[in-house]
Amino acid sequence: MPPTIRVDESIYRNLVEVAKELGLSVDEIVNICLSNLSFLKMVVKEDVEGLGKVFNDVPRDRLASLALLRVLFIAGGFYKVFRHLVKDLGFLDKGFIIEFVDPVLDDEGNCIGMTAHFAASVYSEKVSNISSATLHVGVRIRRDGVEICRECGWLEIESLVGFKDKLGDKYEEVKNKLEKALGDDEVADALEDLEDSLGCDISEVNAKVLNTNNSLSLYIEIFVDDYTCLPPIDEIEKIINLVLSKTGIVRKTD
Fold first, then answer.
1. Which of 19, 96, 113, 229 is the right S-S partner for 138, CB 3.0 to 4.6 Å?
2. Are 232 and 90 in contact (CB under 8 A)?
3. Would you state the pLDDT for residue 254?
4. Model-level pTM?
C-alpha cells in the first residue's frame, strides 16, 4: 500500500473546500504542492540558519516548522506584489511559468535588484512566439561586473527557432536567413521604432541570433533607465514575427 499522510480533520475539510472552489481534486492539490516543495527547501534552510543564531536553545525541527510556515504565508503575498510589478509586461496573462525570482546582492549582501526568469508553458506556446525571458530590475549585469541602477529595467527575450538535430543540413541555412533578416531595413526600422516609443531618457533595443547548445534562437534585449518603460511582450512578438516572416520560417503560433 502507498504511504499514508495524516492530517487533522479540520485541515482536510478546508482542503476539500479549497479543491472544490478551484475546480481541482484533493489529490491534484496535494501532488502539486508536495512535488514543488523542494523549491522551498533552500530558502527554509537559510531561514533556519538565521533563526538558529538567535534561538540556539530551540530544536532545529521547531525552527524549520516556523520557517516553512512563514515562507508559505509570504509566498502568496509576494506573488501579489510580483504580479503587480510585471502586470504590464503580459507574461503572466499569457501563461508563462515563473521559474525563479532571485535578489541580486552586492558584495556586502545588500539587495540591489531582482532577477526573474519566465519560461513558456504548454499554454503560452499556443499564443506567444517567446520561449523564455529574463527580467532584471534595479541592476544590469555586464561582462565586466555589476552596474547598479536604482530603477532601471533590463529584459532579455529568446524565441527558439530550432535544434540542430531537427534542422539537420538546413541548420546553417536557417542561421544565415535569420542573420540576414535582422539586417533587413524593415526589421531595423521596427527595432528603432520600438526603442523610440519607450519614453525613457535612456533606452536601448538590440537583437541578434543566438547559436548555442546546438540550437538557434532570436534574442532581443531591451534596457531602460526606468523599468516601467519596458514594453509589453505583444510589441516584441510583432518584431519576432516580422523577422520570421522574412526568413519564411513558420511557427505554430503564427
1. 113
2. yes
3. 40
4. 0.83
